[in-house]
């Protein structure tokens, strides 16, 4: 009887611990186990990718929520001229920002380590989306009026570039009705509108994706039908919104 390899035993234990932490909603612990998985993994299969996404998304969401509360109170104290209290809140805020930065930089380091050795389109797109998400979270506080003079728009720009790179990759490799490609088209269009206020570019991306997919709808695999029709509906709604913006 073949004995399981040490690697397999170690990975099985890490995955079990990560899932246990997820069940208990202990996302800081989950992220620690996921870092171990990322370090040891030989391939990024769907299960591992899901664990990475859940751990990173939920941990950062918690910290961003805390940051929003702190910065809201700080802005209020500044508006009332209570500088001493505002200074205390600034220290809290900067600690929160430092923590968010450390999480995002760890994820970005992981992306750089993995992306060059990937051949699978699905994994490459996952890594680029992870990169986009990390820069989006950094931009959340770096582009705030209290910080923009320090950081500028660097994280926002890198967020957009990561999304554009992922979308470009899908247009080269995937069908127009692939939910990954359609989802990225929607995401890139929304980012173009929200970040740059560029209705024209957002509309162009959305219309092209919608029009390319429309003739192919009869060929949607059954397992993708729900996702594709939902994304197409969202594209259509945004096309209407952005068309109205441009006509005003």
UniProtKB/TrEMBL annotation:
Residues in coiled coil: none
Gene3D superfamilies on file: 14-3-3 domain
Annotated SUPFAM superfamilies: 14-3-3 protein (SSF48445)
Occurrences of domain 14-3-3 (ranges): 11-248
Domain of life of the source: Eukaryota
Record-linked PANTHER family: 14-3-3 PROTEIN (PTHR18860)
Similarity field: Belongs to the 14-3-3 family.
Protein name per its UniProtKB record: 14-3-3 domain-containing protein
Native species: Blepharisma stoltei
């Amino acid at each position: 009887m073949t004995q399981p390899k040490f690697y397999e035993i170690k990975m099985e234990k890490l995955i079990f611990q990560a899932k246990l932490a997820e069940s208990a909603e202990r996302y800081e612990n989950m992220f620690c186990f996921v870092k171990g998985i990322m370090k040891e993994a030989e391939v990024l299969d769907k299960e591992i990718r899901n664990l990475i996404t859940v751990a990173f998304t939920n941990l950062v969401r918690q910290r961003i929520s805390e940051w929003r509360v702190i910065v809201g109170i700080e802005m209020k104290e500044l508006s009332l001229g209570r500088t001493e209290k505002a200074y205390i809140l600034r220290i809290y805020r900067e600690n929160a920002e430092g923590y968010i930065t450390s999480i995002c930089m760890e994820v970005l380091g992981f992306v750089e380590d993995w992306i060059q050795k990937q051949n699978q389109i699905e994994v490459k797109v996952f890594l680029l989306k992870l990169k986009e998400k990390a820069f989006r979270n950094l931009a959340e506080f770096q582009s705030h009026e209290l910080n923009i003079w320090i950081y500028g728009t660097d994280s926002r720009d890198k967020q957009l570039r990561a999304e554009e790179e992922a979308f470009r990759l899908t247009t080269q490799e995937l069908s127009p009705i692939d939910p990954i490609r359609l989802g990225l088209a929607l995401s890139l269009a929304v980012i173009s509108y929200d970040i740059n206020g560029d209705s024209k570019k957002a509309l162009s991306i959305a219309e092209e994706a919608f029009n390319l997919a429309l003739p192919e709808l009869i060929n949607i695999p059954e397992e993708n039908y729900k996702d594709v029709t939902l994304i197409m509906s969202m594209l259509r709604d945004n096309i209407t919104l952005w068309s109205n913006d441009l006509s005003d």
